[in-house]
Design a protein that fits this description.
By secondary structure, the chain is of the alpha+beta class. It contains 8 helices and 21 strands.
């Protein structure tokens, strides 16, 4: 089921009564979520991700704009009539019911012509339980399950009505790191197996990158960029997006362009054909540095982290705007005993320039 958002806007009266005024939680959001895809809504706290999800679910009414499921305008429909499955961060299972009863609950509440015979309900409940791999746990109570298992029950309960769209609001936040990893892979598998169009809200860029077909990056209610995860990482449209994606994060420097050369701290570090003379912010991905004795970017070494396959050199530079400069280099590279300075050449496609006023990307060499 294709989901189309047209100029979706949500304005709340400010929660701060003293200051008054309004908060534009979501501002003119237009986007089409393709049928059968998993879309990650990504952004820092307060950027409007949950509000967007709640508008798609029908729990919140847009101030303006429209929502379509396929060709059907669902903007005015109640949540029950939209055919959605919702999963929240805190599982929200009924503690006094068994897993089976929890999963059956939405089916037992169907009214009118949607009502179904008991055998069909049971058959459906067991089918989704099997899909999320909790069919062995049907007689347990939620308190007898791990966090990951509880979240699977919540997903099964959301799926049992065969929703047209599955909406997940930070579903992994309450899980520990290992379970989070495992459960996110599970969600991906379940989504692929069912082919249900899914919208996944998270503030965790790594989670969004790993699970999504398409990512929507938001800031202060405004969509910044949409695209495949790798595409956004490789081609961020502004400094905010560049900083938000990637671990370790992008390194940012003050820089200057003169005669189509980029200078950082007075040293020429890269040719930037087509860029006029101006002061810029320079973003360099950690994997964009090549240790090279003749390289123009000279940093003062403050430490080396070995991370399995890779080595990360932590250093400092007078023009850096991030707390340190972190490069990821080949594990074979070794700093000499007592070496205090490292010089880098740069990979042009890992270097991004941004205007200092708008923080929009300035493209070069294209
Ligand atoms: P988080 O990850 O912290 O949940 P979010 O990106 O999901 O953040 P929203 O919860 O959608 O952000 O909130 C977006 C903005 O709207 C915030 O500034 C928030 O304070 C404001 N907001 C959300 N709900 C209300 C409300 N009911 N009344 C007033 N302001 C609200």
């Amino acid at each position: 089921m294709k989901v189309e958002l047209k100029n979706l806007t949500k304005i709340f009266p400010s929660r701060n009564k003293k200051v008054g005024g309004e908060v534009v939680a979501v501002n003119d959001f237009t986007f089409t979520i393709p049928d059968g895809k998993l879309v990650g809504l990504l952004g820092p706290s307060g950027c409007g991700k949950s509000t967007t999800l709640y508008m798609i679910s029908g729990l919140q009414k847009p101030s303006s704009g429209q929502i379509f499921f396929g060709d059907e305008d669902v903007t005015e429909l109640t949540p029950e009539n939209r055919g959605i499955g919702l999963v929240f961060q805190n599982y929200a299972l009924y503690p006094h019911m068994t897993v089976k009863q929890n999963i059956l609950f939405p089916l037992q509440n169907l009214r009118g012509e949607d009502r179904m015979p008991k055998e069909e309900m049971l058959e459906r409940a067991y089918r989704v339980a099997k899909l999320v791999q909790i069919d062995e746990l049907m007689d347990r109570k939620p308190s007898e399950l791990s966090g990951g298992q509880q979240q699977r029950v919540a997903i099964a309960r959301a799926l049992v009505k065969m929703p047209r769209v599955l909406l997940l609001d930070e579903p992994l936040s309450n899980l520990d790191a290992r379970l989070r990893l495992q459960t996110r892979e599970e969600i991906r598998r379940i989504q692929k197996e069912t082919g249900i169009t899914t919208i996944f809200v998270t503030h965790d860029q790594e989670e969004a990158m790993s699970i999504s077909d398409v990512i929507v990056v938001m800031k202060l209610g405004v969509v910044q960029q949409t695209g495949k995860p790798q595409q956004i990482y490789d081609d961020p449209c502004n400094l905010f997006v560049a900083k938000f994606l990637g671990t370790p994060p992008i390194n940012v420097f003050e820089g200057e362009v003169r005669a189509e050369k980029l200078y950082i701290g007075g040293a020429a570090v890269l040719d930037v054909p087509g860029v006029e003379d101006r002061a810029v912010y320079v973003g360099i991905r950690p994997e964009g540095f090549i240790p090279d004795a003749n390289g123009g970017l000279r940093c003062e070494v403050s430490g080396v982290d070995v991370m399995g396959r890779d080595v990360s050199i932590v250093s400092r530079h007078g023009a850096m705007l991030t707390p340190s400069v972190r490069s990821i280099v080949d594990a074979d590279y070794k700093l000499a005993e007592g070496q205090t300075e490292v010089a880098y050449a740069l990979k042009p496609h890992k270097v991004f320039l941004f205007a200092k006023d708008t923080e929009e990307r300035i493209y070069f060499g294209v």
